[in-house]
TrEMBL record:
Pathway listed: One-carbon metabolism; tetrahydrofolate interconversion
Protein name: Bifunctional protein FolD
Binding-site residues, NADP(+): 164-166, 230
Species per Swiss-Prot/TrEMBL record: Ammonifex degensii (strain DSM 10501 / KC4)
SUPFAM superfamilies according to UniProt: Aminoacid dehydrogenase-like, N-terminal domain (SSF53223), NAD(P)-binding Rossmann-fold domains (SSF51735)
The family this protein is said to belong to: Belongs to the tetrahydrofolate dehydrogenase/cyclohydrolase family.
Catalytic activity: (6R)-5,10-methenyltetrahydrofolate + H2O = (6R)-10-formyltetrahydrofolate + H(+); (6R)-5,10-methylene-5,6,7,8-tetrahydrofolate + NADP(+) = (6R)-5,10-methenyltetrahydrofolate + NADPH
Residues of the Tetrahydrofolate dehydrogenase/cyclohydrolase catalytic domain: 5-119
Assigned GO CC terms: cytosol
Function recorded in the entry: Catalyzes the oxidation of 5,10-methylenetetrahydrofolate to 5,10-methenyltetrahydrofolate and then the hydrolysis of 5,10-methenyltetrahydrofolate to 10-formyltetrahydrofolate.
Domain named Tetrahydrofolate dehydrogenase/cyclohydrolase NAD(P)-binding: residues: 138-277
């Protein structure tokens, strides 16, 4: 039976580290502040925004939600992002998705200061990630690596297979893993014989958004399996890994819920603190 790699205790531990650092900033008269910009009223985006607000405030960070109606003009939203980017009181900015279809995502992201881009979505941060330079990078891939690192699982020299090449998880994982000297294979929906590739993995990281995609016969015995999927099903929230068949085969396995997803918000908090240091706050 696989050893379960819980994200919950780790999240609590990182939250404590963040709280202490926030305390040090506040003692200097600076409150770390994140602003989220939401256009429209997508129910899931509203729920995520509220959850972030609660979490950030619980560690003493400031949070503000700037809302635009679903009919907001491109210029209005761009102007707001530029204003927030130049405000010294704001240290991090998130543009919430999905956006209404009439808005141009790339142009909006271009209006965002890369130094405040705590989701790591601007071209500048993506370029920095690829070229091995310091910058702000997406939270979920960092959560996958943190869960391995804090459980003492080395990635250097290992064959890591990533399933999914989405913008928020799979794609940024590739350069992050290369930085850590892993040998990486990335699979996607056009990969032929997915199981052939996943069975080669010493560490398998799955972020496809397909419940039950990875079954026990697709996992090398003893492998480390990190499930970043979060899927809402009739039975509740589940990952991309078929837990009952994979648990007896894998050596280590992250549960869903209670695994990678538990770490995303604390990684965002860490990104906000990193943004402050990149901005030269003192
Ligand atoms: P996405 O942008 O839709 O990307 C999904 C990726 O999976 C795509 O690259 C797709 O391939 C690939 N894929 C889909 N079906 C596949 C199949 N049958 N075989 C192999 N690959 C397949 O999704 P995402 O935003 O990266 O999110 C992925 C998952 O992570 C979702 O479950 C999401 O909820 C979860 N997530 C979790 C967190 C967290 O906090 N833990 C944060 C963000 C996302 P193509 O590129 O060929 O289409």
């Amino acid at each position: 039976m696989a050893v379960l790699l819980s994200g919950k205790e780790l999240a609590a531990q990182i939250k404590e580290e963040v709280r202490e650092e926030v305390g040090r900033w506040k003692a200097k008269g600076v409150t770390p502040k994140l602003v989220a910009v939401l256009v429209g009223d997508d129910p899931a985006a509203v729920v995520y925004a509220q959850a972030k607000e609660k979490a950030l405030k619980s560690v003493g960070m400031a949070y503000e939600l700037v809302k635009f109606s679903a009919t907001a003009r491109q210029e209005e939203v761009e102007a707001k992002l530029k204003e927030l980017s130049s405000s010294p009181e704001v240290h991090g900015i998130i543009l919430e998705f999905p956006l209404p279809p009439h808005l141009n995502k790339d142009r909006l992201l271009s209006a965002l200061s890369p130094l405040k881009d705590v989701d790591g979505l601007t071209y500048e941060n993506r370029g920095r990630l690829l070229s091995g330079e310091e910058g702000l990078f997406p939270a979920t891939p960092q959560s996958c690596l943190a869960i391995l690192e804090r459980h003492g699982i080395e990635v250097a020299g290992k064959h890591v297979v990533v399933v999914g090449r989405g913008e928020t998880v799979g794609r940024p994982l590739l350069p992050l893993l290369l930085r850590k000297d892993a040998t990486v294979t990335v699979c996607h929906s056009r990969t032929v014989d997915l199981g052939y590739h996943t069975r080669q993995a010493e560490i398998l990281i799955v972020a496809a958004g397909r419940p039950g995609l990875i079954t026990g016969d697709m996992v090398k015995p003893g492998a480390v399996v990190v499930d970043a999927g979060i899927n809402q099903t009739e039975q509740g929230i589940c990952g991309d890994v078929d837990f009952p068949s994979v648990e007896p085969v894998a050596g280590y396995l992250t549960p869903v819920p209670g695994g990678v997803g538990s770490l995303t918000t604390v990684m965002l908090m860490k990104n906000l603190l990193k943004a402050m240091s990149l901005q030269g706050c003192s």
